[in-house]
Amino acid sequence: MAILFSTHPKYLDHLAGAGHPERPARLEAVLAGAGLGRVDDALVACEPRPARRDELERVHPAAFLDALEGLCLGGGGRIDEDTSVIASSWEAALLGAGAGVAAIEALDAGAGDAAFCAVRPPGHHATPTRAMGFCLLNNVAVAAAALAERGERVVIVDIDAHHGNGTQDAFYADPRVLYVSLHEYPLYPGTGRLTEQGRGDGAGTTLNLPLPAGATGDVYLAALDEIIDPVVEGFAPTWLLVSAGFDAHRRDPLTGLGLTSGDFAAITTHLMRYAPAGRRLAMLEGGYDLQALADSTAAFLAALEGRAVEPERPTSGGPGMAVVRAATELWGIG
User: Which of 147, 188, 259, 312 is spaced 20 to 30 Å from 55 by Cα?
Assistant: First the structure.
């Protein structure tokens, strides 16, 4: 299988501040992971392009975009205690938001079977009207909105340890997009409760699995089997998008979950069931231990190609099964 691999040197120009965990070295770790996964022969370069204003405005209002662009091009500054920009951040953000749309265009043309966009800054905390949590523009939401606009039914599965509040907000009332998140709770940003299931026409198209610290791979696989699979089957997506955050790794300095790269391999292999080849797109989110990020990227890319590469053994025995049971009861499954 051919995997479109999208990245850009301009992503390295965004700097969030001295000592910030969201740093350019993260992309170097991702590139190292591609080598560890022995997928080099399967990778096909896919050039990102800046997102157009009309593509961005499907998610972000013009006033927000104008303000963020003005802050960046005016020399930058602090947005919140976790999020800062410099002048070059705007170009990096536009390329990050456009990477998914460009990858979709390439997949439509038959250039690959799946795509992985190694972008920064990440995006899933950016709400339609607010940059936050290291995120400026919501990269995966821009891609999902482009697909929904043309009539696709999109499932986004967010495996980042932090809940993707921005992605949830963007589609909370939108029946065209099913948002699924497995995340640590309680943890920043404090959203993603079981009872957050969508609103209005989008009721029943948000599924949250708020897992306790220490949750292991067997809990994730049980969640997929027992609750996520039937919800996804009922939704009948035509495209799969993955918010591929790797900070659920047990070595990550910002989180407390218990996964290894072997777990990411198993999770990714399972997720591939949700859409056919040519309709699978993943976008990098978090992951702040560089070796864990490299190992997890290796496992993820190999699983996208249909091979098993496990730099570390999968895990089991951690807490979280009670959350899976509560979710199945809430959703009336089983």
Answer: 188
Low-confidence spans in the chain with pLDDT less than 70: 37
Using CA atoms, how far residue 323 sits from 167, 216, 229, in Å, is: 22, 13, 16
Closest CA to 162 of 278, 74, 245: 245
Compute CA distances 215 → 109, 153, 205, 310, whole Å. 40, 30, 24, 19
Q: Tell me how far apart the alpha carbons of residues 285 and 279 are, in angstroms, rounded to a whole number.
A: 19
154-170: burial string, b at 16+ Cβ within 10 Å, e else: bbbbbbbbbbbbbbbbb
Catalytic residue list: 125
Query: Could you tell me which of 120, 140, 114 has the C-alpha nearest to residue 271?
Result: 114
* CA gap 165, 141 in Å, rounded: 11
| SS3 category, 46 | coil
Length of the chain: 334
What three-state secondary structure class fits 288? coil
> Tokens 């495996």 sit at which residue?
159
Residue 216 C-alpha from the chain's centroid: 19
Residue whose tokens read 């306790």: 212
Distance between CA atoms of residues 272 and 307, nearest Å: 12
Find the distance separating the first CA and the last CA of the chain, reported in whole Å: 35
Q: Which of 35, 130, 132, 102 is closest to 283 using CA atoms?
A: 102
Look up residue 96 and give its two tokens. 């990050």
Measured in degrees and rounded to the nearest 5, phi and psi for residue 134 equal 75, -5
Q: What is the pLDDT of residue 40?
A: 77
